[in-house]
Amino acid sequence: MPDSLSRFQERLGYQFSDSRTLKHALKHRSAGANNNERLEFLGDSLINLFAAESMFHTHPESPEGDLSSMRSHLVRKESLADIARFLHLEEVIELGQSALSSGGHRRDSILADAVEAVIAAVYLDGGWQAASDVSAKLLEIPAKAISSVESVRDAKSLLQEWLQGRGHPLPIYETVEVSGPGHARQFAIGCTIEGQDQQFVGEGPNRRSAEQEAANRALAAVGVNIDE
Questions:
Q1: Which tens digits make up the pLDDT trace of 70-89?
Q2: Fewest beta carbons less than 10 Å away: which of 4, 29, 89, 209?
Q3: Which entry of 40, 82, 113, 116 is annotated as an active-site residue?
Q4: Where are the domains of the chain?
Q5: Thinking of the domain 2-147, which architecture would CATH place it in?
């Protein structure tokens, strides 16, 4: 573990003066008491602020609503999990047996929470500037994919906007089927919208991706192209 932590800090671009702070940030609640939940709370606020600052400076012409959408995309679970994988965080996170047996080191939610905790740990260990510098480096990963608000508008958001703009109720999503072993689940999610007499079913390795696919199919049925 010491060598793994050293490599992790190299990838992170920050050397902790007190390694106990880092170890605390990497301890999931399944591993017992004194875990990283409080650090997650602090890190969530910090990374939202750093993301907002990044969008504010890199998109000077964008209005508040667009900046908010881009920031949300930047700090969403999937984006933070991508950062975790870039850092190989799954190699150093401490999990309890229950989380290990269910493939916790691969789960987006666990990895994303740990990234937030690590940012908080950097802040506590090295101060505001250190946390800002580390966050700026890490947020470049998802930020590169954001050129405008259009690039972050997903199918579910577009479908909701389309329905609301026409006075229709929000779409209803429900689980149709969950299949596969615990480490490789496959979800089928149905989407029902007013004015259509069929349910649009999407599939994916998690509920979110399946819902997005279902929404995309609903959009296609009403003639909306998400890529336009």
A1: 788 788 887 898 899 989 99
A2: 4
A3: 116
A4: 2-147, 155-221
A5: Orthogonal Bundle (1.10)
175 Rama sector, left if φ>0, alpha if ψ -120 to 50, beta otherwise: beta
The answer to whether the Cα torsion of 146, 208, 102, 21 is positive or negative is positive
Measured distance CA(130)–CA(132) in Å, rounded: 5
**Backbone phi and psi for residue 51, each to the nearest 5 degrees, phi listed first:** -65, -40
Structure tokens at 21: 């702070």
Half-sphere exposure of 80 toward its Cβ, with a 13 Å CA cutoff?
25
Query: pLDDT at position 145, please?
Result: 60
Q: Which CATH number fits domain 155-221: 2.130.10.10, 3.30.160.20, 3.40.50.300, 3.20.20.70?
A: 3.30.160.20
**Dihedral sign computed on CA atoms, order 52, 53, 57, 58:** negative
Catalytic residue among 44, 82, 94, 108: 44
Measure the CA–CA gap between 89 and 81, rounded to whole angstroms. 9
pTM of the model: 0.68
The question of whether 44 is a catalytic residue gets the answer yes
Instruction: Kindly tell me the sign of the dihedral angle through the C-alpha atoms of 8, 9, 12, 13.
Output: negative
